Amino acid sequence: MNDAPATTSLERAERLQGLGCKRKRVEDVRFTQGKGNYVDDIKLPGMLHGDFHRSSHGHARIVKIDTSKAKALPGVLAVLTAEDLKGVNLAWMPTLAGDVQMVLADGKVLFQNQEIAFVVATDRYIAADAADLVEVEYEPLPVLVDPFKAMDADASILREDIKDKTEGAHGARKHPNHIFTWAVGDRELTDAAFAKAEVATKDLLTYQRVHPCPLETCQCVVSFNKITGELTIYGTFQAPHVIRTVVALIAGLPEQKIHVISPDIGGGFGNKVGAYPGYICSAVASIVTGLPVKWVEDRIENLSTTSFARDYHMTTEIAATRQGRVTGLRVHILADHGAFDACADPSKWPAGFSNIVTGSYDFPVAHLSVDGVYTNKAPGGVAYRCSFRVTEVAYAIERAMDIMAQKLGLDPVDFRVRNFIKREQFPYQSALGWEYDSGDYHTAMQKAVEATNYRALREEQKAKQEAFKRGETRELMGIGVSFFTEIVGAGPSKNCDILGIAMFDSCEIRIHPTGKGIARMGTKSQGQGHETTWAQIIASEIGIPADDITVEEGNTDTAPYGLGTYGSRSTPVAGAAIAMASRKIKAKAQMIAAFMLEVHEDDLEWDVDRFRVKGNPESFKTMSQIAWAAYNKVPPGMEPGLEAVSYYDPPNMTYPFGAYICVMDIDVDTGVHKVRRFYALDDCGTRINPMIIEGQVHGGCTEGYAIAMGQEIAYDESGNVKGASLMDFFLPTAVETPHWETDYTVTPSPHHPIGAKGVGESPNVGSVPCFANAVNDAFKFLGSTHIPMPHDAYRTWLAAEKLGLHA
Questions:
Q1: Active-site residue (options: 297, 541, 712, 761)
Q2: pLDDT tens-digit profile of 731-773?
Q3: Does the first or last residue of the chain, that is N or C, have fewer Cβ atoms within 10 Å of its Cβ?
Q4: Is 385 considered catalytic here?
């Protein structure tokens, strides 16, 4: 007797809330009631608190550190310096980029606010007071903050620990401040293309240093059990398993005795991928004291010392015919890595995936070279809401395409369309080595043009330009266009690893006897909605309602090993692992159903949430019935239970793309802008949850708006960091944030099990050049070629001043 109600396939599919359903985020039930569990909510018996004394100098030798006053303060248990860490071989730690980094300043400081001493006290406020009592005597050294001067003959040598090394992690070093040179493409063919180019452009396109600035700062609670020798770490980790392995390598502890737990995380955006001194010092302090130690950084510490993003200076050249066909691309990037090379890139890619710089265009030849250098700035270089270095080069190619269109007298849309990779060219081999999986660029751009009435906007702009010339208005109208292709889903083991660990990801699914399930993944959500969407994939694959599936992440004791969540890799890699694990369960369920129905398994067909006998739809077994049978009535020779594990190593990256159009009005007398309209069309392949996709696009575009229109972590000539508080670092509120108009096309990835590509990073990649192009487009009829970011009101006013508009 069958227990399922007699409903249609469509009704049963709707009940599952699977792929394509606008399922509400299940996480929000606890978040909206203030019931989230974040690191700072964790309170353990006897817990101590840690805080840092930090450098006031950008570059100086440490003559003396006096911790006596700090140690004398009641409630202080310990004050650690580099000399203390040397005793346990933890004064320096390896970075993900193959460099080493001071945990606490060893002999000298290399950037302002660098960690010098770690105070451990019974109270957070006592720790902060004691940190202020640490006295440091400095010998100031010449400061280097300009990456273009890093390799000058008279440049101050920053990294004295490696000044005599002629080889780095990625080849020969040209100078003591040089980190690496990385190049890809055919230089000879590219140079030849430029030698015979009818038209060429060359521009320095700088993507300024910014910061992910998540709502929750970096934090941890570390507890060492002296009896068992086990170390438990609660932290804001985007990649918990990687942190566990790094700690094992650094501390020399057996990995099975290290337990890493990432509870709820209040945003990551790449900032919480790497390891920071606060984690190491908290672990040492817990081992020394035998008590748990909590470290929570404040906002200034987060902005000025944890991983920055961007700081890429890209000399970009395009060769083209007079008819507007591109014939070559040549790019050199000067990458400012700060005091240590702590970029969170796959090991073989010191400049990330910057060779996606050819973008959406059919360049026959291209060459890219990158030089990384040290400066007296905080280390980092993370993928702030983008795949590794993709947003930097997307900005470069999209600005360069606008500049070339301007030089040729062509409309920016028409010039792009003329050079798009055609649908029939996919899979497409780019001139810089990538194989784009799928795309339909012409359809996406045409939809964007029609949806925004783009041609009419251009006519309106012409009329306003004439009115401006006649003195009838002081406003300029700019129309920004960007069309990006992103590379995400790191990644295939053939070319992606971190510390030698292939960048696969994982899923374990267990179906209980009652037909409910639990799924554990190697990813870690920081707001992406994994608890919602992962259950939707499983629901569609095995026919169990999403509400009946619990999703767990972030605990290395229970989750299968995975490389975490960043660079829009969750859906392309973990999403595939989820589908593959589900299919293993489905395959076993089919054998059980065949046994129950006394037919061969090939005589069964799948129908939403059940297996039915072909030609006899009334004879079926639901997944709920099969789950019960899996624990008491399996075929002879089959193991009981219904569970599966999948480790998915993708065969290729995925390549989401999009068409963005921005309409902006700018007051030349104040530099103040107003975004009249912003249209964002994204193609992320199969859409798991349209509502979550829309939220991701809103969030990414808001961050892109912040970057393009004001964000910057700048340094003065003395190495003082500017913009290290929210008084100076631009975070848009609801007042400034534009209205986002979203749209989509669907071009599934041919190699992904469900055809999904990922979307979380795309809106940041596409929106930044779109805003920048809108500002530049407003001024170009007056003879301007390129105005660099960020486009805050003062710098926009300066641009107008330089054009003589304030006379």
A1: 761
A2: 999 999 999 999 999 999 999 999 999 999 999 999 999 999 9
A3: N
A4: yes
